[in-house]
């Protein structure tokens, strides 16, 4: 879980009242991230677009690697099954 300092948490009502100021704190990088709370529960995070794209690309690469691993394991399992079937053929 990501930790947030007190000054990185803003309420949804504060965001509604001061959106431009809050957005500028992300754009000018005076804040790396801002967690938005509603009813004392963290609901969303506001990030710089470059950071979001970096995180999205990292996630996509991890997802692709996971898919490749699944496909490699299926190929290995298929070869093992084929080999097993060959050994059990009655001639």
Give an overview in words:
It is built from 3 helices and 3 strands. With 91 residues, it is an alpha+beta fold. A 3-stranded mixed beta sheet has the order 1-2-3. Strand 2 and strand 3 form a beta hairpin. It starts with 8 loop residues before the first strand and ends with a helix. Antitoxin component of a type II toxin-antitoxin (TA) system. Belongs to the phD/YefM antitoxin family.
Keywords for this structure?
91 residues, alpha+beta, YefM-like fold, 2 domains, three-stranded mixed beta sheet, 3 helices, elongated, Antitoxin, YefM-like_sf, Antitoxin_Phd/YefM
Overall SS class: alpha+beta
**Low-pLDDT segments:** none
Number of domains: 2
Which descriptor suits the 3D outline? elongated
* Helix proportion range: 55-70%
Q: What percentage of amino acids are in beta strands?
A: 15-25%
Provide a short characterization of the protein structure.
This protein has 91 residues and is α+β, with helices and mostly antiparallel strands. Helix content is 59%, strand content 18%.
What's the topology here?
Blueprint: E1 9-11, H1 12-17, H2 19-27, E2 33-38, E3 41-47, H3 49-87
Parallel strand pairs: 1-2
Antiparallel strand pairs: 2-3
